[in-house]
Each structure stands twice: as C-alpha cells, then as structure tokens.
Amino acid sequence: xxxxTYWVLSTLSVVVLLFGFDASSHGTNTVATPPAAISxxxxxxxxxxxxxxxxxxxxxxxxxxxxxxxxxxxxNGSSSSAKKTVTGDVADTQWGPVQVQLTMKGGxxxxxxxxxxxxxxxxxxxxxxxxxxxxxxxxxxKQSAGIDMVSGATVTSDGYIRxxxxxxxKA
Length: 171
Fold this sequence. Notes:
Layout: H1 2-20, E1 37-41, E2 44-48, E3 83-87, E4 91-93, E5 96-105, E6 108-116, H2 122-142, H3 154-170
Antiparallel strand pairs: 1-2, 1-6, 3-5, 4-5, 5-6
C-alpha cells in the first residue's frame, strides 16, 4: 500500500512540475538584446550599427580610417589594392534573413559585417551572439566561403555561408 501511495505522489509531482515549467520564458532575463549588425576587422569582433534593409550598405562598418572605400559591388579604379565593400544577397532562412557585407583590399577579405541575422527572440540573440563572431573569424582566416558551420546555429550558419558566397561571387 505504501508503494502505491509513493508512486501516485511521485507521478503527481512530475506532472505538476512539467505543466508548471514555462520553457518560452526560461532564461530570457539574462540574454542581452543583439546589436543591429555584427562586424569584425581582421578577426576581432566588434559591434556597429547599420540599417536593416537589404539594399543599403554604408561602407563604414568595421573599418578604421577609410577615406576611399566604395559601396556596393563596384570597385574604385583598376588598382588591385583599392579597398571595396561588397554586400551579399539576403539569404532567407527558417528563422529570418541573413546578409553579409565584406570589405576587401587587394583580393583579401579584410573585414566582415553581418547586416541582418535572425533576432526574433532571446534564443536567437543567444545563438547569434555566440555563432556570428566564430563565423566571421573563420571567414577572415580561410578567405573563402568554405568554412565550417557552428554547431547549434545550423540555420544561421547556412544563411551566412550562402550570403558570404554571393558577396565573394560579386567581388
């Protein structure tokens, strides 16, 4: 008889705990709001701001001391050492758009800015604050879109790589 009583009470406790747990708000108090854009110059991460439209590119995020950089996918002059900014296509993902902007000089990727990325909830912010600096660092190290995806951020990694490849193709 005691075993049955313990079993009923244990089962009832588990049911109450399961239905009382709100997974959608768990941990959202500790997650910071993500910045509008994440950028990096030569592998170090920093934050900047940029518009959220897919057709705008400022050409100033993540660079220091630029005076002759161009916007979009066109280059200034015929010199191979001219600094240019190339914006990749928007990659629509399951959780939101991802768009990458590259700053290149002499055929080398000098800086990467992520203009758009999923940021609809606290979990998106947590994932992207972890994953995007890793993706940016790998891009500047490998100088190509042949980078590894970040575990736990597969959707964002896929969108990042597709937008990155389109920016490299434009360059």
